Amino acid sequence: MWLLLAVVLVQLYYAAYYFLPFAHRPPEPATGPDDEPVSVLVCAHNELENLRRLLPLILQQDYPAGFELVLIDDRSDDDTYLYVQQLTQYYPHVRLVSVARTPDGLSPKKYALTLGIKSARYERLLFTDADCIPATNQWIRYMQRGFNRPADMVLGYSAYAEEPGFLNKLIRFETLLTGAQYLSFAWRGQPYMGVGRNLAYTQPVFYQTKGFASHIRSLSGDDDLLVQDAVQQQARVAVAAEPGAHTLSEPAHTWGEWWRQKRRHLSAGRQYRLADRIRIGTFIGANLLYYCMAIGLLFSRPDWVPLATVCLVRTGAILAVYYQLGRRLEERLPVAWLPFLDAVYFFYYLALGISLFLYRTLRWK
């Protein structure tokens, strides 16, 4: 019981120090300086249908200082090239970078992104993926405003579209909890990752970290490992968590697809700084220990009153914090589902960790 109480106190510390203050922080101003042009980069591999949806929404962005749209066609064999070429005839600020092949042993996406970054005209760079869309036509404005804090790198939030079914609820819960971690940690001055679906940084930061050189052969990590390297170089990191700064992505539709996606994402964690691994591992480990010990005590001969009290306090406090985070990030999950999603998520995370330890081969599209 004392150990159970200790892990609950650890969880309440994360909730009280990181999550709740972040959820209640004042909203970002609706107006601000927009005096620097930006290069918006999208890397695509056989994503024609997604690009037909995404690119018009980017071109409709309201950003007074102006922007260019750099589409990186990474070895596509659909009609991506023809579609973007047609756009360049009507929109002079749309540019196409074509990648015919990737050198052996290098991550295809990182190599393609490097070519796109080198061709970008502006110092500020804003990234999203082809299967995303900006939540509003103020997306560029909100993300670029993060540089005025001042900062060299801006972390945004990317939600997943709501669909029927339990898998979709679990994906959105995992996205909310992951976003709460990396955004609130960065807000507290401890940045450790971002997501390539909604990330901005400057060209000087990219070159100071030597780009993706330290992990160019790893399939994952074009976002979080770059943040790791940038922080090592004393880069200043800001957070843009207003709903207008969000992007929205298509979720995985099968358990297998999501399993492979999460394996790729988690595989980069082995290269995080020790302090970050300890901080994240403590949070994940405390939640896993809580469930394992609570189940163990339930089937032993417990003193029911202390056990029920600890579990009720923990569940009520954590769910209240998750609800506040959902409101802050506009991730509206059914409150009645949160206890079940919380339990399933942490055991799913444990299974992913075991899988990565036993089988390290990753798949890429």
Describe what this molecule looks like in 3D.
The chain has helices at residues 2-23, 48-59, 80-90, 108-119, 139-145, 166-187, 203-208, 224-232, 255-267, 274-298, 304-328, 338-358, and strands at 38-44, 67-74, 94-99, 124-129, 132-134, 153-156, 158-160, 199-202, 237-240, 247-249. The strands form 2 sheets. The chain has a 7-stranded mixed beta sheet, sandwiched between helices. Strands 5-10-7 form a 3-stranded mixed beta sheet. The chain is an alpha/beta fold and 365 residues long. It has 2 domains: 2-22 and 274-357, no CATH class; 26-179 and 188-253, Spore Coat Polysaccharide Biosynthesis Protein SpsA, Chain A. The chain contains 12 helices and 10 strands.
Shape: globular
Indicate the multimeric state.
Answer: single chain
Largest pleated sheet: 7 strands, mixed
How many DSSP-defined strands?
10
Uncertain segments:
none
CATH architecture level-2 label of the largest domain: Alpha-Beta Complex
Residue-averaged pLDDT: 87
Provide the gyration radius in Å: 21 Å
CATH superfamily of the largest domain: Spore Coat Polysaccharide Biosynthesis Protein SpsA, Chain A
Class based on secondary structure composition and strand pairing: alpha/beta
Classify the helix fraction into a percent range. 40-55%
Tally of individual helices: 12
By CATH reckoning, the class of the largest domain would read Alpha Beta
Kindly give the count of domains: 2
Order of helices and strands: HEHEHEHEEHEEHEHHEEHHHH
